[in-house]
Amino acid sequence: MQNASARQPDAARGHTVEYLRVKALAERGVANAQHSLGFMYVNGQGVPQDFALAVEWYLKAANSGLEHAQYNLGVMYQKGQGVAQDYAQAAAWYERAAVQGYAAAQYNLGWLYAKGQGVGHDVQQAMHWFSQAADQGDAGAQNNLGMMYETGKGVPQDFKQAILWYRKAAEQGYARAQFNLALRYDNAQGVPLDQQQAISWFRKAAEQGYAPAQFNLALRFDKGQGVPQNSQKAISWYRRAAEQGHASSQFNLALLYDSGHGVPRDEELALEWYRKAAGQGHAGAQDNLGLRYEHGQGVGQDFEQAQAWYRKAAEQGFASAQYHLGLLFDAGSGVERDASEAIAWFGKAAEQSHVRAQFELGLRYESGMDVPRDYRHAMAWYRRAADHDYAPAQFMVGALFDSDEAGMLDSREAYSWYRKAADQGYARAQFALGLRHDSGQGVARDYEAAYFWYLQAARQGHARAQFNLGLMHAAGHGAVPDLVQAMTWLQQAELAGIAAAARYVKSTAARMNPSQLAQARCLAVRAELAA
């Protein structure tokens, strides 16, 4: 290797007086000057940046026993600057500085043991060196000790000790420790629950530019958790984190621009942030891009692009994307139709409690579509979705209990599940309850209750409920006789395709006087405008 002094630029080339002074001392073997010269070459301070020359001068100083030169030489080996990257050499030089009490070297050596880089993975050694540095006030080491106590790595889990070390680092202004301390106040781990303390520490870390804290603070303002809801502040913090590449902030910022929540709606800007987050592997953003390409929202419709983005998210285990990918395989959109592949993706999503996927599997097993018909399997999947209060699934559970063919007949269970769905406003279930009360099937006959449930379903456009209401008003059966109301409901049922309604419209019209007919026409126009 060419020696350092032989490679030095000539003094006549315009170097600073300070450089020439330090160089002269270094060449005379003064270790601190050798280190300073190395530092100048690392940072391009008064000389062109040259990592190789920096290593040569650091090595001279390090061999003299200068601990900060040993530390900096370790950094060069760890980063592969001026030398081939070599974690073992980095560890060796860090250790020489660490045993002399150099805190930064103790901290870095602790990390190498924690990660098993250049040395064997050894949490006890990591703990030892972090403790040495922490006792000297090194904030990074204090934070790492906090994490080890929090997770129980190398020591028994102890939230109070974790808090102690986090606080020491946080009070020195170490942003990660401030963030970790905020999380503990937020989750009541080692300290009483205190949202204001949590927000205070989140803010301290956020104001130092720590992106996870900025994101968390943005969430608070976005949702009004512990602070007054403020969309502008939420956007400001999301943006500060997003511009640092924080993927979840990029995604949430996209959602706000997409919905126009707190900002003017801007589909183009939303798409830009979705792409940034998706490009970093954010599964929610990838799924959202898939939806946009599938439906041509803000981009040209492109099923192949939709499939590609859904797959990226689906392979990360994102349930919504697995379901959407299943739908593409089922329809043959952007891919060759493959029912078994569709069902496999539905299954992956369903096992993660995606209710639409669970419901889809229930439908398939009930109907025998692309799978053998199996009412037990259908019921199992419907029940899993129904237990998440998914009203269509609650209705289908009721329908299976109501079915002779399924072999699970249980009128009380059927009524109970219909009622759950009906109470959520599901029209098919409301109509089913109306029929049961109308006919006395499994319950006492109750025309008033039948009328109530028919009316709930009819107002949502359920044609058979509209037809039945018309008949009840026309005959005065279970409802106040009212030919105008009868005509109104029967006409709506006829327009909705109930063939039998036409005959009853004629017979009801024949019983009405001109004033009633005019009133019925007026109501029909209002109903049409409302629709």
Automatic annotation (TrEMBL):
Entry protein name: SEL1-like repeat protein
Q: From which domain of life does this come?
A: Bacteria
User: Entry's PANTHER family?
Assistant: ERAD-ASSOCIATED E3 UBIQUITIN-PROTEIN LIGASE COMPONENT HRD3, SEL-1-LIKE PROTEIN
The UniProt entry, under Pfam families, shows: Sel1 (PF08238)
Spell out the SMART domains in the cross-references: SEL1
Which InterPro entries does the entry mention? Sel1-like, Sel1_AlgK, TPR-like_helical_dom_sf
- Ranges annotated as spanning the membrane: none
